[in-house]
Amino acid sequence: MTAAPRSPAPHVVIVGGGGTGAALALDLVLRGVRVTLVERGEITSGTTGRHHGLLHSGARYAVNDAESAVECIEENQLLRRVAPGSFEENDGLFVGIDDEDMAYGEKLFAACGETGIPARWLTPAEALRLEPNLNPDLKGAIQVPDATFDAMRLPLRWFATAKAHGAVIQPFCEVTAMAVRDACVTGVRGRDHRTERDFEIGADLVVNAGGPWSEKIAAMAGVDVPIQPSPGVLLALRGRLCNMVVNRMHKSGDGDIVVPQRGLSIVGTSSWVVKDPDDLGVPEDHVQKMYDEGSKIVPAVRGAPFRQAWSAARPLIGGGGGADTGRELSRTFKCFDHMERDGVEGFVTISGGKATTARAMAETTANVVCRKLGIDAPCLTHETVLLPHTSYYAA
Amino acid sequence: MSDTTSVTFRVHRYKQGDEDPHHDRFAVEVGPRTTVLDALTAIRRTQDPTLTLRHSCFHASCGTCGMKVNDHEVLACVTNVRELGTDEVRVEPLDNAPVVSDLVVDMGPFYARFDVAERPLVRESELVPGSHTAAGVPQSMRYEDCIECGICVSACPIAGTDPAYLGPAALAAIDRVRQEPRGVDVGPIMRLADDPHAAWRCHLAFECTEACPSNVDPAGHIMQLRRSLFARGWRRPSAEPQGARR
Amino acid sequence: MALQTEDPGMSRQAPVERWAPEERDTLPGVGWGWQALTGIAVLFLVTLHMIANHFVVTGGLRDYQQVIDYITNPIILPLETLFLIVVSWHGLLGLRAVIFDFGLSTRAERAVTRVLLVVWVATMVYGVALLAILVTRR
Amino acid sequence: MTERVAGADRRVERQGRRRGVMGWVDVRGRRLGGWAFILNRLTGLGVLFYLYLHLIVLSQLAVGPSAWDSLLRNWFLNPVFLLLDVVLLAGLVIHGLNGVRLALVGFGIVIDRQKALLLAFGVLGAILIVIGALRFISDAGAK
Q1: Against a cut of 0.80, is the pTM above it?
Q2: Angle between the B218-231 and D79-106 helix axes, to the nearest 10 degrees?
Q3: Which of A35, A115, C13, D18 is exposed most, by the fewest CB atoms within 10 A?
């Protein structure tokens, strides 16, 4: 027996071992649901592991998307409590280098106040005292409670804790088909690439948490979800150019953030759209843009030794064509109950969103799942302190 | 973008239940930026979807894609294929760890050892020169350098013969706690380091330090540990009321 | 309503044992410390031995009478005796470490230690007897 | 894990790819320090073997002057034996210098500069071996 053990409790299969799947697995086991999670490769091998590791304060969204901003600051504070020791809690700066930036800064500061994000103005001298590598010509900066986390190791804590509560996590198990009977998904079929044997798992409900791959997974159940894989290029440089997260004080654009990570500095990011989330590529002009734009806020970006450039595909909700950069698509998440939407029972898709809000996405999804399964249990992930990441492999 | 050349990859293959591992050859078009990890994911996408490997961050921060390329332990994500300079690239899983399948090793035994150090993930940050700590930030912090990739254990000749050896990564983690105890009593972990299969087992090949992709210098830490253990005068550590501080 | 299979055909991970220190009655650093200390002693003594027996003798090696003259020197005799004790200790302790690389059980390791101790004592008996015979040949 | 397949070896699955004691002489992918480790093992075993051979041969001294001197003339001053003496010297120099390195670094006296030490000792060792070899060869000519 290698799926979750048989018991009277309902059994949910989660397809996709990224951050959302991890948080959902934990959320559901804590509510008494039996969970089996299957992932095509190693866990966190999709989009989850590849982002820059920013724990959003919400300030990035405060001006245009107050709802996302509030969600971010709430999760930001909550995650520090349930995952102590997982964050470089050094705050972040929004740096203004021209008058346009400063005008945006006024709006940003006001919006932070409205959305409950602690923020304070710094003079150029104050900002430079905190981060001497900032552009010395900066006109002002706003300090916000951004933080950074390890894009792989925070989800590992959800996985570890879920596993300790009985969730069965199966990496290298690729789902190739849904078992569907009378417009009801009854399980998944696929291949375990560790043994090259086929598997078949029955489920009371299947959750599609495939991120940019969720369109492909949904198609197996005969439904269409409007997910647009939208990659961005990131650049890793050797050396820690700053301790705080450094953002450009303007509306979201290319190469406008420098995130410290261990002994590296990450510059992000760009945005375009692709069809196949497995085939992203790293456009040379985008890499150049990271250097050009990144060095406007932290000039040392220009001379820092190159470590790597790579792409990560965001799972944006949009579709229907028209989008060519992905910037115009929403960054919020959406939980699709395919019974309501497509008349297919036993199948739910969660997609969109951000790493910072993965737990909230999981909570919303678990609420939908539990309602459908007739389970009346409260969410516990906002107060359950997570096990260390090492115990995922060590246990 | 037509600046590609064909390189042969000779890849270690093994599936649970197989009698013996074998190797498969794949031809891959590589460009100036193509890494070994890019090539392997391309093989999985276009030639053989059954190929298993571990990867996550693609920039030497997560430590999942440690493997042996042309006999050397590397992170596949930062190993440029062209810079290897060979027509055939041999790719194998890390040594000294159970093989799950193909290029995937079971990190369980690694973490079972690493975990005994109970070293926190974040440490005090060495500040950027000239900088201060922001108001509202009690202390500047950063992640430890070790990315738990298992490369040091694979490169270590002692781990190659002694399965009970605690290993370079775990010993380096113990030494990090000794250097920066963060409020814990280091006595118990120093006792672990004092084991015959721990700090004293190292034979100073420094292969771990040479192979480490994240500047941890495990062998240097083991030597620091020994110095610290010597300083304790070979007394039974349990007899000490307080943890050792150099 | 859900289809349930007892064995969905997936691989399962073996449980991992946590690393635990060895039960022991000796201090572990001592073995390494001894090896280092005897190693340094051997280095001095072997240098002396090599110079005395190879480099200061015309023709490279001592004949019988030269050996007897050398070994009965009141400074050389204790030094060569010490050399014998220390070099065999260092060598056998090193051999023990090499044997342990074969991954023996703790019981087998203890047996190896005892056997090597016997070998060392035998070496001492043989060596001291040989030296005693030569000294009386003066 | 899946059930055991009859006759399957599966060692790689249980223990992984471990070089084992063959790792002492497996130089694939080894760097300078790895070579030092391998040489230390091999020279140690070699010199220990020589030590016991030497002790056994010395028993001829107890037999008497003629036994020893004929052994000396017929065997030890033979050029082949002098060549073996060079090998012994090389073994002693390598093991001895590496031992000093192990002590200096292992006691925590030199840690930061260990690589420079390794290189310096490598050069020093090579010089000592060459000097010793020349000496042996000139001795062979003298007798």
Answers
A1: yes
A2: 70
A3: C13
A14: left (phi over 0), alpha (psi -120 to 50) or beta: beta
CATH code of the domain occupying D31-142:
1.20.1300.10
Q: Is D141 on the interface with B (CB under 8 A)?
A: no
Residue type, B69: V
Tokens (6 digits) for C55? 């480099």
Domains of chain B: 5-105 (3.10.20.30), 108-239 (1.10.1060.10)
Please, which residues 36-95 of chain B have a Cβ atom closer than 8 Å to chain D? 68, 70-73, 92-95
CA of D103: how far to CAs of D75, D108, D118, in Å?
A: 37, 8, 12
Q: What is the CATH number of domain A11-47+153-226+330-394?
A: 3.50.50.60
Question: What are the E-state strand segments in A146-288?
Answer: 147-149, 168-170, 173-181, 184-192, 197-202, 205-208, 227-238, 245-248, 257-261, 264-268
In this model, does residue A213 exceed pLDDT 80?
Answer: yes
Residue A157 near residue A79, CB atoms below 8 Å: no
Facing A194 at nearest CB: one of C2, C7, C11: C11
Q: C8 and A186: CB-CB below 8 Å?
A: no
Q: At what angle do helices C64-71 and C76-100 cross, to 10 degrees?
A: 100
User: Domains of chain A: which residue ranges?
Assistant: 11-47+153-226+330-394, 54-149+228-317
In order of B45, B116, B166, C8, the CA distances from C19 in angstroms are 38, 7, 7, 32
pLDDT averaged over every residue in chain A: 94
d(CA C14, nearest CA chain A) in Å: 10
Cα C81 to Cα C93, C125, C129, D46: the distances in Å are 18, 11, 11, 22
Residue to mutate among B61, B105, B107, B123, with most A CBs inside 10 A, is: B61
In this complex, do A310 and B137 lie within 8 Å of one another by their Cβ atoms?
no
Predicted local distance difference test score (pLDDT) of residue A238: 96
Residue scoring higher pLDDT (A196 or B1): A196
- Structural domain spans, chain D: 31-142
pLDDT for D2 = 37
pLDDT tens digits for A369-388? 999 999 999 999 999 999 99
**Yes or no, beta carbons of D96 and C46 under 8 Å apart:** yes
A96 pairs with which residues across the strands?
A140
**Short-list D42, D37, D138, CA closest to D85:** D138
Tokens of B52: 């298993």
pLDDT digit string, tens, across residues C11-42: 766 677 777 776 655 556 667 788 888 999 99
> CA-CA distances (angstroms) from residue C42 to C86, C88, D118?
6, 9, 20
Interface contact B147-A310, CB threshold 8 A: no
**What distance lies between CA B63 and its chain's CA centroid?**
7
pLDDT tens digits, C71-105: 888 999 999 999 999 999 999 999 988 888 887 88
Question: How far D59 CA sits from the closest chain B CA (Å)?
Answer: 36
Q: Which of D7, D18, D115 sits opposite B160 (nearest CB)?
A: D18
